[in-house]
Amino acid sequence: MVGTEEAMFQPMFLTREKFETSTKVFRKMMTGKTQSKRLNFLPGPVAIKKEVEQAFYNPPISHRSSDFMENIKIVRERLCELVNAEHAQIVVGTGTLANDLVAAHLKKLSGKGLILANGEFGYRLIDHAERMNLRTKDRKAME
């Protein structure tokens, strides 16, 4: 343990020698044996399950067909049950569109709300709320 009595901590470190002798990763790197499948650590695109991928090979259903309309009706009913709502709509779009829809809905409600932001997405929600002319308090005033 190092530091002061008020703030003791245990530094964590790994020497090159310890890494070389204790990890399978190092041995694989040195032998050239790596995974044949590439790993993507970016936030997207997400991996697609085989069942979903297989569904893409089926012919599409027209959005005007009775089968499609029945499926949409069932999904909307299930959504209403899940969230105990009278109505549900399905909208195809981005997360930005979803934020705009939420802000537009909140604009119709009375009362106050709260957006807690500790990063980019929270700040985007605040931006959506401000563009929808929802009452907000300046971040700096709250600090």
Q: Which features characterize this protein?
A:
single chain; 143 residues; mainly alpha; two-stranded antiparallel sheet; 7 helices; 2 strands; 4% strand
Number of helices: 7
Strand order, largest beta sheet: 1-2
Give the overall silhouette: flat
Which spans have pLDDT < 50 for at least 5 consecutive residues? Answer: none
Structural class: mainly alpha
Q: DSSP strand (E) fraction?
A: under 5%
How many beta-strand segments?
2
| Integer-rounded radius of gyration | 26 Å
The overall pLDDT average reads: 83
How much helix, percentage-wise, in residues?
40-55%
First CA to last CA: what distance? 34 Å
Can you lay out the helices and strands and say which pair or pack?
Blueprint lengths: L1 E3 L2 E3 L6 H7 L1 H8 L18 H6 L10 H18 L11 H13 L12 H12 L7 H4 L1
Antiparallel strand pairs: 1-2
Structure description:
With 143 residues, the chain is mainly alpha-helical. Among the domains are: 63-88; 93-143, no CATH class. It is 48% helix and 4% strand. The chain has helices at 16-22, 24-31, 50-55, 66-83, 95-107, 120-131, 139-142; strands spanning 2-4, 7-9. Strands 1-2 form a two-stranded antiparallel sheet. A hairpin with a 2-residue loop joins strand 1 and strand 2 (7-9). Helix 5 packs across helix 6 (120-131). The radius of gyration is 26 Å and the shape is flat. 1% of the residues are buried. The mean pLDDT is 83.
